[in-house]
Amino acid sequence: MLVESLAFVLIGLLVTAVALGVLPEYFPAPRGLTAGTAVVAALVSGVIAHYATSGALPAVILAISATGSALLVSVLARPDLVAQRSGAHRSGSPRQGTGRHGVHRRRPA
Question: For residue 65, is it within any domain?
Fold first, then answer.
């Protein structure tokens, strides 16, 4: 179990490196939070997978650990802030005279 625990920590660090290396603008939180989340998620999901499979399938356990870590790190991603920083929005700016969702509103008389 000690060797697997070290493998889970390495998986967490790898998930951190990939997340911060590929999409650094999506993670405005401190880098330590992202790294800590990835490592703890990899450890917890790896231990749960180890006990669920009775340690019989090490490749599956490592894959579950990586998946659990990636899923919890993705919770920290903030793509909405990236759109605000660049000044552009995916759907473009609303048309003149329309409401927030592109629906015309009647003005009270």
Answer: yes
Can you tell me whether residue 29 is helix, strand or coil? coil
**How many structural domains comprise the chain?**
1
Q: Closest Cα to residue 11, out of 57, 56, 73, 78?
A: 73
Residue whose C-alpha is closest to residue 48's, from 36, 33, 60: 60
Domain residues for 51?
2-86
The token pair at 70 is 């990636």
What does pTM read for this prediction?
A: 0.72
In one letter, which amino acid is 100?
Answer: R
Higher pLDDT, 86 or 45: 45
95 in a domain, yes or no?
no
Instruction: Report which DSSP code applies to 102.
Output: S
Residue 105 lies in a domain: no
Q: What is the per-residue pLDDT across 29-61, written as a single tens digit (0 to 9) for each? A: 889 999 999 999 999 999 999 999 998 999 999
Crossing angle of helices 31-53 and 58-76, rounded to 10°? 150
